[in-house]
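Aim 2, interim progress: modelling of the LLP-bound target.
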Amino acid sequence: MANYGSPLYVYSRSDIESNWREFDEAFGDHPHLVCYAVKANSNIAVLNVLAKIGAGFDIVSVGELERVLAAGGQASNCVFSGVAKTQDEIKRGLEVGIRCFNVESSAEMSRIEQVAQAMNTQAPISIRVNPNVDAKTHPYISTGLKENKFGVDIDDALALYEQAHNSKYINVQGLDCHIGSQLTELSPFIDALDKVLELITQLNDRGIEISHLDLGGGVGIRYDDETTIDIAKYVDAILDKVGDLDIILEPGRAIVGNAGVFVTKVEFLKQNSDKSFAIIDGAMNDLLRPAFYNAYHQVLPVNENAKGTEASWDLVGPICETGDFLAKDRQLSLSEGDYLALMSAGAYGFTMSSNYNSRPRVAEVMVSDKAHHLIRQRETIQDLFNTESVIND
Ligand code: LLP
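Predicted structure of the complex, ligand included:
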């Protein structure tokens, strides 16, 4: 903190690498590609570390694509997800030669076909099917139910595949599904797998060959006391069922979540008859998950021996919202000036941060071996409005 100021995100390179390798190695010789979901943490140093060890990438915008390319990742290892790819995004994906578009609707298929036709090329696609299974996770991050906006209804997928198969400008490669995030049980994954395998059999029967199966991301991590999915068992359960299909996975949280912390400083302690508030310099704009999902992040003092006022503290930020809290009712011994680490903040931490209340976005640091590197400078006040202008009249 002396070097970089507070608040701050700090990531561990070795944890990121070993988390990705755990997925990769579980496949052994089976053809596969572990595509890190860039949305979880898109800092180019994170992407670069993963590109260097052979990761593929799951992207959802041209911004993420350009980040991957700037970080040294290969387009041919990128799968492009997302419900509303624009013409420009499709064009750029085709230009650089991404591995596959994960198509989420019939309208999107037509758009991809038109762009490919205009470029006189073939677009590689897989269809993201919605298998209608309950991921048993937070409703905001559940995606595989009929009522969710994602994917093509599994009952409609066959017809769309036939249409794609008959198009000169579409090259059917795979089948894709992603049922939700922060899953802590294996069974929804297996239910979805069984359903999509059934569809693949029907497609094969119609002469439509599927060369890869993308099972999305979603493997949960331990924030508190959740039991989590054993990755080797998860991969074994997949390999038991898929024959020689090439498998793609899109884990995000499981790669970076527990490889990062958010560090914040206690500014003031404020106790009234009912409540003990530790007012910290970090806020909901820096780490949105608690305010948005009521998510739990463990809080640890950076200095283990710090002694202060023992109480059950709510950690609240400087933002003018009652929802601006990062943790509630935590038994801690605190003094003003203490640094606290919010654990498991490597995924969906910085990437969901904003400038609300005109707060510059914080710095990011990566620890590699024993060295630490600034991988994103703290924004300046000038950065906040240097693309804005007043009307002169
Ligand atoms: N693939 C697709 C198509 C996705 O939509 C997602 C996440 C992933 C892969 C990666 O999922 P993961 O392995 O990270 O669970 N902001 C929320 C999480 C939103 C997840 C959105 N999609 C949070 O902070 O919990």
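Residues 187-205 form the longest helix (19 residues). The two ends are 45 Å apart (CA to CA).
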